[in-house]
Specification:
- This protein has one domain.
- 64% of the residues lie in helices and 0% in strands.
- It contains 6 helices and no strands.
- The chain has 117 residues and is an all-alpha fold.
- It has helices at 3-15, 25-35, 42-46, 56-71, 76-86, 98-116.
């Protein structure tokens, strides 16, 4: 099972429980900065700066390595919550790229719509 599939399962399981209070974004970010595994190598999750071209093969390898780090992160769900609330345009967040986050949002919207029908 992939890291993102495990995170999705955890997210779905947590949604079925009593909703937890929503932390302010600044508190979520502080928690990620203190406990996130990505703090040891932030460039792995963000990639090179905007003025540097990253070959596709290198980007894929970097994203795969970042996802592996996310698998063992103690604040992966908080990271996913932060990413879903802020809609980042780059980086790897809880094992998801911005494109993956958009797909997850669309999947959740479709499931909610199906349940409402």
């Amino acid at each position: 099972m992939t890291a993102s599939a495990r995170l999705t399962e955890s997210l779905e399981a947590s949604m079925s429980l009593v909703p937890l209070p929503v932390l302010p974004l600044v508190d979520l970010l502080a928690r990620l900065g203190k406990q996130g595994e990505c703090r040891y190598d932030p460039d792995l999750h963000t990639g090179p700066d905007v003025f540097e071209v990253e070959p596709i093969a290198d980007r894929r390898a970097r994203v795969d390595a970042a996802r592996t780090v996310c698998e063992g992160c103690p604040v992966a769900l908080e990271c996913l919550e932060y990413a879903l609330r802020t809609n980042p345009d780059h980086g790897v967040w809880a094992g998801y790229t911005p494109r993956g986050l958009a797909a997850l949002r669309a999947q959740v919207r479709a499931e909610v719509a199906a349940e409402a029908a």
